């Protein structure tokens, strides 16, 4: 290839290369020829060579050796060379390179050039890659050009001023007078640049925002002129007059009217006019309507205008474009707390969006549907949500189940309906529910004393049909152990009569114990249920004794310990077995407004029992790590678990049992504050599961005045530590701490290294993403244990 080959020929040669190696060879030869010509003092093809180098740069190959050539060409008096030089500077230079400082003087000279196109080149370059130092030096020149008579220059100077304000905030005051005067221009390009500049100035300085609130009437007049103007070929886009300028003005009005009643009143009539007169059949019209809706919802607008905005979003939900449906639901999600009744009118359309094929639309529809659940529509909404749960994607199942549990707990019309709903979720998505679901449902069942017979029969049938859903199996085993006598009677009037024998009940529990699908925790439930049946049946006690003895040599330590204790109860303390294994008392929560996984106050109700000292025996119906949660005080739990059991401290059989089962009580660890920034707080609580295992619960809350969406927590630990993050309780944090998000992290530290964890907090606030990282170097209460 000869050095004088044109740009088109070079492009053709590069595209015809068959291999990457051949392409590199073509580029290396051409770059060598370009270098040689750059060294020549009098080179007539400088712009031609630099254009070829820029194409090489676009392909990703190094082209830094052309930076000084860009500087020389910018200083050239010829427009053709200056144009390519400025283009090369925007592509090859940035503010971090020293070579960019060399063009400052050339830009300053060109800003005063008599040719408007040369001035335009200088303005574009400064707006693209101007450093803070360049902006400070050239800001007076930009302010002068903002007052020029040439509209072509003024619109580019306005956009250049935007870049300067972003780089150097304190220079914003310099452009305030010129920016305000630009609003009187008739040229739409100048108006657009002026509005963008004013938006930037208002966002940077609250005092400037107050000054520009006086321009609201001017902006309203400009907007009315656009809405009511006839057909203008120069500005018409699909029947809308300059929609780009309309969107910018609406955005500026939203900023000026926020938290200001006077400014909001001035624009109410305009917003109503735009909302009713804009054509919604075209994408362009929908863009203007969407900005109008955002402005109405963000300012102190009239109630009728807010209802009109919600109705526009409701029409968006019927649009065939999934993007429009998505942004409509995103906007409705933000206002469902303040305009609940207006959003409720579109409940049917929102529920229909649950059937959409797009995963993002489904997720937004699910979040909005859960937010719309109330006491008046709980039955109809829950029917739709349960139908969605049975067919939703796996990635949404945990979120849907968690939302259904929270809604059922808050608005349940009856205890039976509440139990049926939770059982339906466990049957459908038992593998995706949170860990605290099992103890919460057990507590609900315990409190509904009149439904014990109905519940145990229903759970027994569900256990026979499916033992793969671990949460369902655990609750079913617990109920069979507690209320096995009611199951065997078979006189439940609320269900179909089914005769269950003692062998049938034991067969079901033994199936769970022997199933490969059962987790160690589930086997613990089943073994304890089997043991409890020994006091509720009469003919198969020997079979229960043999089942328990088999697991005395189980490889699982927890199950083995449990079986050994139960065998000891059979052999040495059989006279105490009925009292130890009697039915659990009612457990109550003090806080009526709790949600799943959150509890305040004492977790259980004190009942009159014999006093027990620390370390005295207690036999748990559930695995220890699930019965005792860190927010449940252990004292009352001990009292109620051994209700009616009288044990003497010394010199009796109870003293021997104390030696066998002593030290079984879990440690209580208080949560600590790990992160607090921007209204978002993150607390950490720890629970030691084994010598090397640890469960960390992260609880996030939002005390700010704006809702947070797309909330996620990510954790990283040293390589020798194994980490497993379970499904979070949700991905949104409502404002003012009305709800929390919990995330459980299971850690295994086999080498017992110094434990550290880094947590990344990510969320979106008012459309702006945010991300932060916190380092956790110590875990409270565990230093003495690990």
UniProtKB/TrEMBL annotation:
Query: What would be one Pfam family of this protein?
Result: Alpha_adaptinC2
Keyword presence, Transport: yes
Q: Which InterPro entries match?
A: Adaptor_Complx_Large_Subunit (IPR050840), AP1_complex_gsu (IPR017107), ARM-like (IPR011989), ARM-type_fold (IPR016024), Clathrin/coatomer_adapt-like_N (IPR002553), Clathrin_a/b/g-adaptin_app_Ig (IPR008152), Clathrin_app_Ig-like_sf (IPR013041), GAE_dom (IPR008153)
**GO CC term, one of those recorded:** AP-1 adaptor complex
Gene3D superfamilies noted in UniProt: 2.60.40.1230, Leucine-rich Repeat Variant
Which segments constitute the GAE domain? 667-780
- List, in alphabetical order, the GO biological process terms annotated in this UniProt record: intracellular protein transport; vesicle-mediated transport
Q: Which keywords does this Swiss-Prot/TrEMBL entry list? A: Cytoplasmic vesicle, Golgi apparatus, Membrane, Protein transport, Transport
Localisation per UniProt entry: Cytoplasmic vesicle membrane; Endomembrane system; Golgi apparatus
Q: How does it sit in the membrane?
A: Peripheral membrane protein
Query: Which SMART domains does the record match to this protein?
Result: Alpha_adaptinC2 (SM00809)
PROSITE patterns given in the database record? GAE (PS50180)
Its domain of life reads Eukaryota
Looking up PANTHER family in the UniProt record yields: ADAPTIN, ALPHA/GAMMA/EPSILON (PTHR22780)
For this chain, the family text in UniProt reads:
Belongs to the adaptor complexes large subunit family.
The name on file for this protein is AP-1 complex subunit gamma
Q: Identify the species of origin.
A: Gasterosteus aculeatus aculeatus (three-spined stickleback)
